[in-house]
Amino acid sequence: MLDHVAIQVSDIASSAAFYDAVLGPLGGARKKQFGENISFGVTGHPFWLVPATDATPSRELHVAFVAGDRASVDAFYAAALATGAEGLHAPRLWPEYHESYYGAFVRDPDGNNVEAVCHLP
């Protein structure tokens, strides 16, 4: 249903470096730059970073990225911690979601809750 999502970030360079690191293990990479706006994706450009337009704090956002396997979730988490990101939940099964839900959660530079999830057994 979604074509793309854009999130406002306070420091485009810092956020782009974070997403370079954590999306790489998931097969994601920078796809397009339009002015200061930067997109990421595996194909196309579904996830955009755009500079915040004012100093008003934003509400926490949760975004989950698809991982092809559990090892990719583990690599996502390790890459996030290597950038200095706060780990929210280490990789594990979340059976309350469904029996094969394997995910990890971290904070991005703007405090958003970013997840990698694999739905495969």
Provide an overview of this structure.
The chain has two helices and eight strands; from the N terminus they run βαββββαβββ. It has one domain (5-52, 60-118): 2,3-Dihydroxybiphenyl 1,2-Dioxygenase, domain 1 (Roll), CATH 3.10.180. The protein has helices at 12-23, 70-82, and strands at residues 5-9, 29-34, 37-41, 47-51, 62-66, 87-93, 102-107, 113-118. Helix 1 packs antiparallel against helix 2 (70-82). With 121 residues, the chain is an alpha/beta fold. The chain is globular, with a radius of gyration of 14 Å. 21% of the residues lie in helices and 37% in strands. The strands form two sheets. Strands 1-4-3-2 form a four-stranded mixed sheet, covered by helices on one side. Residues 1-119 form the VOC domain. It comes from Streptomyces alboniger. This is VOC family protein. InterPro entries: Glyas_Bleomycin-R_OHBP_Dase, Glyas_Fos-R_dOase_dom, VOC_core.
Descriptive key words:
8 strands, 2,3-Dihydroxybiphenyl 1,2-Dioxygenase, domain 1, four-stranded mixed beta sheet, 2 helices, alpha/beta, 21% helix, 37% strand
Q: Identify the CATH class.
A: Alpha Beta
Residue ranges: pLDDT <50 for 5 or more in a row?
A: none
Q: CATH superfamily membership, which one?
A: 2,3-Dihydroxybiphenyl 1,2-Dioxygenase, domain 1
* pLDDT averaged residue by residue: 96
Q: Roughly what percent helix?
A: 10-25%
Q: Tell the overall outline.
A: globular
How are strands sequenced across the largest beta sheet? 1-4-3-2
Gyration radius, rounded: 14 Å
Structural domain tally = 1
Number of helices: 2
Strand content: 35-45%
Query: Would you count the extended β strands for me?
Result: 8
Structural class given helices, strands, pairing?
A: alpha/beta
Distance between the first and last residues' Cα: 25 Å
Give me the strand/helix succession. Answer: EHEEEEHEEE
Q: So, CATH architecture? A: Roll
The CATH topology corresponds to 2,3-Dihydroxybiphenyl 1,2-Dioxygenase, domain 1
Main sheet, how many strands, which sense, barrel?
Answer: 4 strands, mixed
Organism: Streptomyces alboniger
Protein name: VOC family protein
Pfam family, one: Glyoxalase
InterPro entries: Glyas_Bleomycin-R_OHBP_Dase (IPR029068), Glyas_Fos-R_dOase_dom (IPR004360), VOC_core (IPR037523)
